[in-house]
Each structure stands twice: as C-alpha cells, then as structure tokens.
Give the backbone structure.
Amino acid sequence: MTSQHRPTGTGWPDAAPASRPGRSADVPAGPGPVTDVPAAEPEGTTAATQAVGSVAAREPGGSAASGSAGGRPGLSSAAVVIAVLLALLGFTFVVQVKSTSTDSSLAALRQEDLVRILSDLEAQEERLRLEIAALEESERQLTSGAQGRQAALEEATRRADELGILAGTLPASGPGLTVRFTPVAKPIRASTLLDAVQELRGAGAEAMQIAGSDGAAVRVVASTYFLDADGGVLADGRRLTAPYTISVIGDPTTMRTALNIPGGVVASVGGDGGNVTVQEREVVDVSALSAPGELRYARPVS
C-alpha cells in the first residue's frame, strides 16, 4: 500500500485527503464509515438556503423535508373533543363563581348592621333548638308506656291551643311590643304596614293585632290583607284610620332589632316624614279574634 492510500475499515482503499474534492484535509480517518463534509458555502448564501441544506442532509435519500401543511400531522378527533370539554369546563367554572358571589346588599352594610343581623340569626337558631328539644321530650313521653295516654292527651291539648292562637281563634298574652305608626307629611300606606307585619313574623312573632285611631282591632293571621283606602287602610275589609298600633307577642329584643334594620320599616316611615314608636312590654294582650272560615272541601279524618 502506497503513501497515497490508507485503510478505511470498509475494505476499500481511501484516497489521500488532497485527492478528494470537497473533503477537508483536517478530518481524521476513523474506524467507521467516513461521511463527506460539505465544502464551505459562498458568503452570499442565505439562512433559508442553509436550513434547507441542513434538513436535506438529515433526510433519507438527501431530499429536504417539505415545509407545507401536508407534512404535519393533522388534529385528531380526540384532540377536538378534549378542547370542547375544556371549554365547557371553563364556562361552568365561571358560572359557578358568579352564582356564589357575595350578596351586594350585605356587602354594602356597615359592621354594626351585620352584627345585628347575625344576632337575629343566632336568636332564631336558639328558638329552633328549644323547639326541637321540646318535640323530642314530647316524643319520649308519648312512648313511655303507662304515661303515654295522659301525655298524648296533654300534648293534643297544647297543640290545639297553639293552633288556635296561630289561626286567630283564641286570645293570647305574653311579652312583646307595641308599635305605633304616626303619619306627618305623608300618609302611612298599606304596603308599609304589610312590611312591618312580615318583618315581625320573620323575627319570631307568635300573635299580633292591628288597631286604628278608634281602637277597633283586627287580628293578623296568615290570610290577613291590607289595602289603601280613602283616609286610611283596609285590614281584612275593616277600615282603619291613623295612627295605627300593632300589638305583637314575641321576643321583644329580636323584634325591635328587625324593625330598626337599615332600609327597614322604621327607616322607610322616617324617610316619608312619619314617626314609629316602639315600646317593649312585659305583657301584651292580643284579644281580637279572627272568624274561622267555612271549609268547602276539607274534612277531618277519624
């Protein structure tokens, strides 16, 4: 073997570096196949031409990979379904966040007002707990064997009295409030009296009646209605004139707080130039009765 050839490991003699055009003389021969090193590109060659040549060197057969859309894998149906599901999940999340946002009416209240509302809720919770305890005690007595009959009779009598008070067919007395509405610049409207009744009921009122200037009182029950009339209001068809006095039995502190909530009845009447006088009393008498309606369809079951 002459100095012009040297072994390449392929079984074929390799020419001297100087005799191979396009091969760098500084590339040493290795044990594996020798790959031609491209000659230096002219200075005017653009970056795009160099990139195509680089891709062509890596592609089988020396051909450059196509840059068109046909050379890219298309979106599969599974990818489209996943994108739709993600969009629906995001929409559901946004709707849930908006639906659970803080009530703007509570956010606008002062700290003192929020404390009063919290106190009302705690008092209502305590009343419900006491009622649950009383019902559980009644259940225990009714199932206690020998005393069950007497306990059942006493429980039935107590429930009849409670229902009679709620229906307005029995008089009642107990601690509560007297609320007096006195118009000044504007008359007291029927809607204002209805709002007062609803706020008192929400605060735990158990029995109430409303009276006009002549002292005639109307028992307020679930079916009581109020209408504006000339010179006054109609309560269950009976005409009442101002000032109006509501006598109500219940927890005085809780009911007073409910009436004085900002934007409530007291504030509404005061904004119209009227006056609301609230007095706590140890004993309030609710003596007006409501005539029971005649049943047309319901019959007791024996």
